[in-house]
Design a protein that fits this description.
This protein has two helices and seven strands. The chain has about 130 residues and is α+β, with helices and mostly antiparallel strands.
Length: about 130
């Protein structure tokens, strides 16, 4: 009887762990010495948080500034970032350079990666 109960508990724990996808924030972090300007074409997955108000133009483009040492929350994702990307294209204007990502794959490639090449979680695009 005790063995059957242990097996049922193990199966229940396995189902619960498998059914729960983690949620991760998506953000842009400015580690440069000056502020940056971000110009982005938004997707339906852009959620800057409850306290942030924003206005997009008729093409769903948005510009915002991220001060030096600050981080801007731009969304949440369940599981992977590829399906929940908040931008379909992106331009980041720094004092020294402009970073341009013309499509979703290029935007995805800007996010921080770990030493084996996988995206780090939480998902952060760091400008240095």
């Amino acid at each position: 009887m005790r063995t059957k109960l242990n097996i049922e508990i193990i199966i229940l724990i396995g189902i619960l762990i498998q059914a729960c996808d983690p949620t991760y924030p998506v953000s842009i972090k400015n580690d440069s010495e000056t502020g940056i300007i971000v110009d982005a074409k938004l997707t339906n997955n852009f959620y800057p948080g409850l306290t942030t108000t924003y206005i997009t133009d008729e093409n769903d483009r948005l510009q915002f500034k991220v001060e030096s040492g600050q981080e801007f929350q731009c969304g949440m994702t369940i599981g992977g970032l590829k399906d929940d990307l908040p931008f379909s294209d992106l331009k980041i204007f720094t004092q020294k350079d402009t970073i341009i990502a013309k499509n979703r794959n290029e935007v995805l490639n800007l996010f921080d990666r770990n030493w084996i090449g996988n995206l780090k979680t939480p998902y952060t695009l760091t400008v240095e």
